[in-house]
Specification:
The chain is built from twelve helices and 21 strands. The protein is 35% helix and 24% strand. It has a seven-stranded mixed beta sheet with strand order 1-2-7-8-9-10-11. A five-stranded mixed beta sheet has the order 12-13-14-15-16. The protein has a five-stranded parallel beta sheet with strand order 18-17-19-20-21, with helices on both faces. α5 packs across α9. The chain is of the alpha/beta class. The protein starts with a strand and ends with a helix. The structure holds MU-OXO-diiron. The site of MU-OXO-diiron (FEO) has 9 residues, from α2.
């Protein structure tokens, strides 16, 4: 396994996780990479590491360029262990390396790996002098942990953006224009929706901080390196971080005996007739992380569950729990569902949607099987609401 040269003396030396399919609840159907970068200057510098089990792969790639013991500096941009997991082994094997992190990163790394690690703090505006280059430091707290930072090499025009602009894709290609750019953008959208979405205000600050920089590569810590589409991904991040929605409605549901599904279809029809783009998303067949990818541009989020044992179905509860954590801003919603007796699920769905910051504008509760007249009533109410 070899390093890949990005520019003269700058190399990708990360690890490829071909088998990853679950990243704490996020379906990573294309796997992922953990990107580490090697800068060959007077002070040889490594940016980030990899997950623990890919340590040997990273070292083999580094060794294709230089003896790893020649690395002088190790900059850890993020404590989360997909990037720092290999740190203890690296320190054990190469104890003379000087480690850097943000002030919050210093705290986090010590909490993870022990107080006896010596780590020098880097803060906003600092630069590491590498010899013919300097590595500029920008703190980006809460994109998406308190410790995050990104780095900029002015001489080479590279932004090392850590988790920002990443995508979960395992591939032997390293640049988005060597892969399929639209797939990279789609995976970046999924990544934003499932990881970055709660922190849109902090993303705006990061975008403002890097707006004045001139770069022709964005090198994230996951997936492909942006080379031809740097402006496109920056513009998309601005778009997504502003929570701009489209005339789009998601109808998300699970069903027991088809009644809640009939309601879902009727709700979809009302939005269709009103010129909305719609998606009918059964929780039996759609992964919650794929639904989130669609949700970042949806104006309406409609969620339905029948009542089972005085409660909503577990699939719906799982989706709403996930949604609450990701806390999208500025969405409207409808809660609905059928029931035989009791009918508690619909109010529970409504409460959970409101806890997820969805503005619930209507609720539909149907006992047993909806008649044609019941369904027509649902449709009329929605059309009246949309066209009011
Ligand atoms: Fe890719 Fe927040 O770790």
């Amino acid at each position: 396994m070899k390093a890949v040269e990005l520019k003269k003396d700058i190399y990708w030396v990360g690890g490829i996780d071909w088998d990853l399919r679950n990243f704490h609840g996020y379906l990573t159907q294309r796997g992922s990479t953990y990107n580490a970068y090697l800068i060959m200057d007077e002070e040889i510098t490594l940016i980030d590491t990899v997950k623990t089990y890919l340590y040997d792969e990273m070292i083999e790639r580094i060794a294709s360029i230089t003896d790893p013991s020649t690395i002088k500096n190790l900059v850890i941009n993020h404590v989360e262990m997909d990037h720092s997991g290999a740190l203890p082994k690296f320190i054990q094997d190469y104890p003379d390396v000087k480690i850097y992190a943000s002030p919050q990163g210093v705290k986090g790394l010590k909490a993870h790996f022990g107080d006896d690690i010596t780590i020098a703090p880097l803060t906003q505006g600092d630069s590491l002098n590498l010899g013919s280059r300097k590595l500029d430091i920008f703190l980006t707290p809460m994109v998406h942990w308190p410790d995050n930072m990104v780095n900029y090499l002015e001489k080479d025009g590279i932004l090392f953006s850590n988790d920002s602009f990443g995508q979960h894709i395992a591939t032997s290609e390293r640049f988005e224009d060597d892969f399929h750019a639209d797939i990279v953008v789609e995976e970046a959208r999924k990544y934003f929706a499932n990881i970055v979405l709660p922190y849109t205000d902090q993303v705006k600050k990061e975008l403002d901080a890097v707006a004045g920089l001139s770069f022709d590569m964005i090198a994230p810590s996951h997936g492909l390196i942006w080379r031809s589409e740097t402006e496109r991904i920056i513009e998309l991040y601005r778009h997504w971080s502003e929570n701009r929605t489209e005339k789009k409605a998601l109808i998300i549901y699970d069903t027991m005996w088809n009644s809640t599904r009939l309601m879902a279809k009727q709700i979809q029809e009302a939005f269709d007739e009103s010129g909305y783009r719609t998606m009918l998303l059964s929780l039996q067949n759609n992964h919650i992380s794929d639904i989130m990818t669609e949700l970042i541009t949806a104006e309406y989020v409609c969620v339905g569950s029948p009542t089972l044992n005085n409660n909503m179905l577990p699939t719906v509860a799982a989706f709403l729990t996930y949604l609450k954590g990701l806390a999208p801003k500025g969405r409207k919603g409808i809660a609905f569902g059928s029931y035989g007796w009791g009918g508690q699920s619909i109010e529970h769905v409504r409460e959970m949607m409101e806890n997820a910051r969805i503005n619930v504008t209507n609720t539909f509760k149907q006992q047993y099987i909806p008649s044609a007249e019941d369904l027509a009533g649902i449709k009329k109410e929605i059309l009246d609401e949309i066209n009011a």
